[in-house]
Amino acid sequence: MKFIAYGLNHLTAPLSVREKYALEMEKVREVLARLKPHAPEAAFLSTCNRVEFYLSTQREEDSLGEIREILNGLHRLKPAEVKKYFYLYEGPQAFLHLFRVASSLDSMVVGEAQILGQVKEAYREAQEAGMAGAILNGIFHRAFSAAKRVRSQTEIARMPVSVSSVAVDLAKKIFSTLSKHPVLLLGAGEMSELTAKYLVDAGVRDFFIANRTLEKAKALADRLGGQALPLSEGLARLGDVDILLTSLAGGPFIIKRDDLESLMKNRKGRALFIIDIGVPRNVDPGAGRLESVYLYNIDDLSTIAESNKGGRQRAVEEAESILGEEVDQLCAWLSERELAPTIIRLRGHFEAVREAELSEFLEKNRDLPDKEKKAIERLTHDLIGKLLHDPTVNLKQVSDEADRFDYSRMLNDIFLNHNPSRKDRG
Amino acid sequence: MTWITWIFAAVAYFYAGGSWNSFRYYQSLDEGFDQKAARWLHAGLLLQGVALAGLWVTQGQAPLGTASGVLGAFSFSLALALTIGRIKTPVPILGSLFSPFIFLLSAISFGGTLQTPCLEPYSVTPYIAIHIFLTFLGFSFFTLGFGVGVAFWIHEGQIKQHRIKSWSYRLPALEVLDRLTVFYIGLGFLFWLAGLGLGESQGGNLPSIHPTVLGSFFVLIIYACFFLLRWVFRLRGRKSMVLVMAGYFLALFIFMSVRYFMMTQTHF
Q: What is the pLDDT of residues A332-382, one digit of tens each?
């Protein structure tokens, strides 16, 4: 049985090609049903950044041929034109690829959490289609556990690398649940809209958007689900909100330290997180020294984002090493699984020989006391155990697939007179 | 070894398991380890509670006559406070910080190396034993409140000064730390007040001007100021944490003075 990964992703194919292969869930089920006669175990992962098949098959060419036919049926491009976008991984390389995908090391935004859910969904679809057998189950469960290890044992998911996500991350460090904390947006520029979107995704519910041009504020409020206000009214609401995101154009320091100082006295100790992404700055930097005021401007956020990028690179290196360990463990498991029948037969054969010889010996030596009979029985048992221990351990450690088959055949030839055909080769 | 020694060895073993899993949580941030640590801690707590109660019943006197007994009771109260705090808001990093300390106390207590008399046997009446346990529990809550307060202090400083360190990802939001500090100090205040009241009423020397009693009273005043400033003047943030720390250092000094600086542990 061979495990292969076949597909394309954002690194190998442009969006214009990827979008031709994007499938809805119903189509995914159809694809799996079509593939079933050609590959007993298969999963199909289709996201905006990748289209991939994971197969456990004995007939690699046949399965790949069918996959290519399925994919060619999705568009009108010539197969020769799209061939260059596809990759094919086999065995340990395919395991590593799946593990990297699930751990989001292969994602466009390294460390994003969505991909693990998408891989789980692909696996669930395979299960529902009856195409997740012992091999696929084992491999995918190990992929999930590897992804969990990477997320928990490295800083990969804890280091936001964009200005907007850094701002949201900081908000989460100050407030436990963002849904309980109202946000005021001053200005309706592109950057503040992006950050506001991140805040909405992180759970913010109450949104006020104030702008000099009310229409712009209304348009943004429609997109984000907030409440649009004229600028003067927005500034008056400053005391009611816990997060202020400001990006107003115009003169510097629209919000002065003294104004904030008197405002904070009325806030009864509630913290105020100010994200000032306006250039020139909208908030007097001296305000950052006030008790319970946390002020970050665009440079502060960019500095953190840059520093996180370095940290994330280190985390990727750690993650790669974790995935290497996981692939080794998976190979060992598969190797053990493949060799298990041979090892069981070998042990059974030795045990049968031992029992036969022992019975013959005991038959000839009936006068022996029971204590000695038991001692001899234990001795032969231990002898067989010790003789087979090292070969068994060494066999389990054979990682190369071809070597595994050769060893298995040799053992069968020498001890068992059973020669597995090349068709049985996994 | 007597049966009770075996039980206390088992308690130390459970607390060691809790510490080990808490440490592994700290390393990996895998919540599975935190849950395992909590289970080990709960098992140790339950067993220790039963053992302490059993000793009290079988010996006819609370097991507070020796330094080992006192340390055992203190490790029990700290584990209890940690468990109660966990029910309110699970903050795994607290387990990582305090579990090793609980294990250490219980191990020293089990080791029996401190069999030196700590309290005169005649003085350990049931009321005095309850007084000791209540003040231990109060002090344990103050300790946890102090720990959370220090975490708030550091975390807030980092956010304010834009110097966030990677380990701070292990801490919850400032809002949670602030709420938890109030919770721990509030419970500590109640137990400390109850312990102080019971000790004084049973000591028979009201009103006492003994330094430890006065000091304990000052601890209560500091924490009362903490609550008053929060609720009336809405004092929050680092300034309010100064009071938490001040109160704790005074409580710690009183604890140390009862054990080390006085000729007798009787204080009323």
A: 888 777 777 788 888 888 888 999 999 999 988 888 898 998 999 999 999
pLDDT tens for residues B67-90?
Answer: 778 888 899 999 999 999 999 888
Domain ranges of chain A: 2-153, 163-302, 333-424
pLDDT above 60 for B135: yes
Task: Name B76's Cβ contacts closer than 8 Å, sequence gap at least 6.
Answer: B45, B48, B49, B52
Chain A hits for B236, CB-CB cut-off 8 Å, are 269-271, 291-292
Interface of A with B (CB under 8 A): 148-149, 152-153, 155, 158, 170, 172-176, 268-271, 288, 291-292, 294, 296, 300, 303-304, 311
- How far from A150 is each of A157, A199, B46, CA to CA, in Å? 9, 25, 35
How many angstroms separate the CA atoms of B76 and B136, rounded? 9
- What is the residue whose two structure tokens read 């992929």? A143
Distance between CA atoms of residues B112 and B115, nearest Å: 6
Structural domain boundaries in chain B: 1-124, 125-268
- Of the candidates B29, B159, B168, the beta carbon closest to that of A294 is on B159
Q: What is the DSSP letter of B261?
A: I
CA B257 to chain A, closest CA, distance in angstroms equals 36
Q: Is B157 on the interface with A (CB under 8 A)?
A: no
ipTM of the complex: 0.84
Name the CATH topology of A163-302: Rossmann fold (3.40.50)
- Catalytic residue check, A331: no
Across the interface, whether the CB atoms of B173 and A176 are under 8 A apart is answered yes
The domain made up of A2-153 has a fold known as Beta Polymerase; domain 2 (3.30.460)
Counting residues of chain A whose pLDDT is more than 90, the rounded percentage is 36
Contact B238 A291 (CB under 8 A): yes
Instruction: Dihedral sign for Cα A316, A318, A324, A327, please.
Output: negative
Comparing alpha-carbon positions, the chain B residue that sits nearest to A312 is B166
